[in-house]
């Protein structure tokens, strides 16, 4: 007869994997959950991790928890609500350069 595994044995590997996420992976995932298409999210995250602090990246990733944007413009509008000029500048320039294919 098989017993049920303790929750710790099931959750421990998942927590270990989550701890291995890099800031770029977390930023990319946050951008994707906020509605940014995968290729653009990857391009933007790659640029943004070198230009923003971890705290700023976490604030930005938190926008994805609020729901999906319908467009990049709508996402940038939501970014402005963070009231952080550096986040706005880096996100806007990253979105523009990545959209043009030069990011």
Task: Give a quick rundown of the structure.
By secondary structure, the chain is mainly alpha-helical. It has six helices and no strands. The termini are far apart.
Description:
This protein is mainly alpha-helical and 103 residues long. The protein has one domain. 66% of the residues lie in helices and 0% in strands. The protein contains six helices and no strands. α2 packs across α3, α2 packs parallel to α4 and α3 crosses α6. It is globular, with a radius of gyration of 16 Å. The N and C termini lie far apart (57 Å). The model has no long low-confidence stretch (mean pLDDT 83). Keywords: Signal. This is Lipoprotein. It comes from Sphingomonas oligophenolica.
Question: Which tags fit this structure?
Answer:
103 residues
Outline the secondary-structure elements.
Elements: H1 7-19, H2 23-33, H3 38-48, H4 54-61, H5 72-80, H6 85-100
Helix pairs in contact: 2-3, 2-4, 3-6, 5-6
Name the shape in a single word. Answer: globular
Q: How would a crystallographer describe the biggest sheet?
A: none
Report the total helices: 6
What number is the mean pLDDT?
A: 83
Tally of distinct domains: 1
Protein name: Lipoprotein
Signal peptide: 1-18
Keywords: Signal
């Amino acid at each position: 007869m098989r017993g049920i595994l303790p929750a710790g044995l099931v959750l421990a590997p998942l927590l270990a994997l989550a701890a291995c996420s890099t800031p770029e992976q977390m930023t990319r995932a946050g951008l994707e959950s906020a509605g940014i298409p995968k290729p653009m999210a990857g391009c933007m995250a790659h640029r943004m991790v070198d230009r923003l602090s971890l705290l700023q990246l976490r604030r930005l990733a938190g926008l994805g928890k609020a729901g999906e944007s319908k467009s990049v413009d709508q996402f940038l509008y939501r970014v402005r609500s963070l009231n952080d000029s550096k986040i706005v500048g880096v996100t806007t320039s990253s979105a523009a350069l990545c959209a043009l294919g030069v990011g």
